Amino acid sequence: MLDPRPFVRGSPFAGTPEVPYPRAVASDEARLPGGTWRAASIPAGVRLELRGDADAVVITYRTACEDPGPRGNGAFEVWAGDSRLATAPAVLGEGSVELPLPAGAEATVYLPERMRPAVLSLTPVGGSLEPAPPRPRWLAYGDSIVEGWVAGSAGSCWPARLGRRLELDVCNLGYAGAARGELPSAEHLAGVAATVISISYGTNCWTTIPHTADLLRAGLEVFLTVVRQGHPHTSIVVTTPIRRPAAEATPNRVGATLGDLRAAMASVVQARIDGGDASLVLVDGETLLDEKLLADGIHPGDDGHAVMADRLEPVMRRACRPGGEETGDHGG
Residue 28: phi, psi to the nearest 5? Predict the structure, then answer.
């Protein structure tokens, strides 16, 4: 029986008994918008990475709730590269599950995230297991499109696909229904060591808490300033919002269309690049996804997440150039 903690990836912040794998600093719960903390309490993208010659692994676990979420009932998933090899449903409360492992290859096991799981132990079957080697860390900040709505599985959203493909420890800091560039989130990014950071928000600035273009512009300026305090030379990839047909030319209640907000976001980033920030990259979100791949008019389905991963892969590969600086303090 193995201690699962060395196998856990995608969880850079210290946990609590109630939230073992938070995706934000738990002590900042009172400083965060309620929706952000609720989303951060769900361990989206948290996973086990392991290698060895075992035929299978038995995972004992405890879940806290039975929330089906956008992807249906909770399940463990085993992935090797871009292939999902097996799934097994989780139960409410304490349970165990045996998952087959690929012969001679590293495996990634995603958790039944919406059920708020805690992994209690790992037991190899027919061989031995050890944690996969540490990977360079990628902090992926954003909204529901980063978190993975409405991908069919935890391992099929675009950050998970790219994390496996590029051998990065992706920490999914996508907060569904939230992520509007709040300063506590910028402080969290600034305080955690990283090789690369991505920032991908904006759609919730059109609808959930409506922003004007000037408000978004000012917020992003300060957000980037705070992140740069912890990461003065780290590559930061900023993607403007993907297309949302109903919002592109429709003013929100304070008069801004999503097109206006996208342009404001791009103007801030481009001005910083022109001002000498050579480690900042701007990606036009309109180029990342065709509207026909939106599953619900807002979020990409599995095919859309695959296309986003493919189109962002060369950008992220360049951003993860050898010798990238790791800065900031580990948060947990």
Answer: -95, 15
Low-confidence ranges of the chain (pLDDT < 50): 323-332
Q: Which two tokens stand for residue 257?
A: 């269309």
Where does residue 255 rank: exposed (0-12), middle (13-18), buried (19+ CB within 10 A)? Answer: exposed
Question: b/e map of 175-203 (b: 16 or more CB within 10 Å)?
Answer: bbbbbbbbebbbbbbbbbbbbbbbbbbbb
Instruction: Give the CB-side neighbour count of residue 25, counting CA atoms within 13 A.
Output: 18
Q: Where do the structural domains in the chain lie, given as residue ranges?
A: 7-13+42-131, 137-319
Peptide bond into 307 cis (omega under 30): no
pTM of this structure: 0.94
Rounded (to 5) percent helix, strand, coil in the chain: 35, 25, 40
* Model confidence pLDDT, tens digit, residues 296-329: 999 999 999 999 999 999 999 999 975 444 433 3
CATH code linked to domain 7-13+42-131: 2.60.120.260
Query: What fold, for 137-319?
Result: Rossmann fold (3.40.50)
H-helix or E-strand containing 241?
none
pLDDT at 63: 96
